[in-house]
Each structure stands twice: as structure tokens, then as C-alpha cells.
Amino acid sequence: MERKSIDEKFRRKPTGAAVMRSDLTDALYRAFFEEWAEHGYTGLSLERVAARAGAGKAAIYRRWPSKLAIASEAIERLGLTLTDVSDRGGLAEELEAYLLMMRRALRHRLVRKILPDIYAEGARSSELVPLLDKLASGRRGAGVEMIERAIARGELRKEIDRELALDLVPSALYWGMIIVRRRITREQIGRQVVALVAGLKAI
Fold it and tell me: Which of 7, 45, 89, 168 has the lowest CB atom count within 10 Å?
């Protein structure tokens, strides 16, 4: 299943004397996401996170200095940022790979609950702004590389509005999966790619 690759990020196999520490760290990550999904970031309790992981609160503070620190590292670990869209020889092929990677992340049951909460909390408080910036930077960095390759191949104009392009690429998929909770098939992604290629050539 596509979800498996995301879940496996929690199950890094440690070696030697670090086995117990690594296992506990993985348990704390899982507990943190479960609590976040159930209670939202504001209602998230590190005491409950520790209890769910079968540990004391001190186990959290030995690893992270704050709730924000564990949130930032946990989000990166979960793989919400989109990276490594390699050169596939054409804009359409790379857009498809990019959207399929994004769909894989958005299908995860915890991501579907946590991601909207991140943006809602970011609008209410500045605490999560660095985390939002990290998410945007990872996604947009991959998008910039993809657009620059398309320009180099002559598929897009050098004068393309890059910021608008980076906004357009993920918008329909995010809206469909997270806002209106629609199941997006590979065929639908294919139609999004056709529309995106036409749109990107026009801006």
C-alpha cells in the first residue's frame, strides 16, 4: 500500500546499545501524531504523549526542548515535505510524479487530520509559522527544480511567473483530498497534469 512507505519512517531499525532509546523515540513520534490528530496542536498534551508511548515526560525533554521542537522534527520525519522529484525527461512526467508523491502523503490517516490543523493554528498564532515555512520550503524547492528543468528543455517560458506556478501545481490535489475529502484516482491526477501543463505554458 502507498501508506506503508510513510509508516515505515517510524520504524528505523537501530543497532547496538541504542536499541531501547531508538524504539522509545519512535514510540514518542507515533504517540505525538496520534495525540495531535485527536486533540489538535493547541490541545496536545506532552504528558499524554509520554503516557501513550509508555514513558515519562522526561523522556520527551531529553530529546526535544519544547512541543514546537518535536512537532517540527516529527513533521519532517513523517515526510510531508515533497523532495527528490528527479529529472524524468519531460514536464508532464515530473508533474505526475510530484502529484503522486503528494497524494501518497495526503492519504495517510494522520496527515489528513494534522495538516489542516497546522494551517489553522498558523493563522491564529505565530508559533507554528516556522513549521509552515519548513513545509512550504521543502515543497516549493522541489517545484522550483522541476520548473527550471522544464525551462531548460524549452517546455516553459523563461518569463514564467514562478510563484504563481508553484501555487498552481499542488492546489487542486490539496483541495480535493483535504478540503472536500474526495478520493483522487491516478486517472484524475492524469487530467490534473494535462490542465497544469496547459496552464503553466500560459503564465
Answer: 89
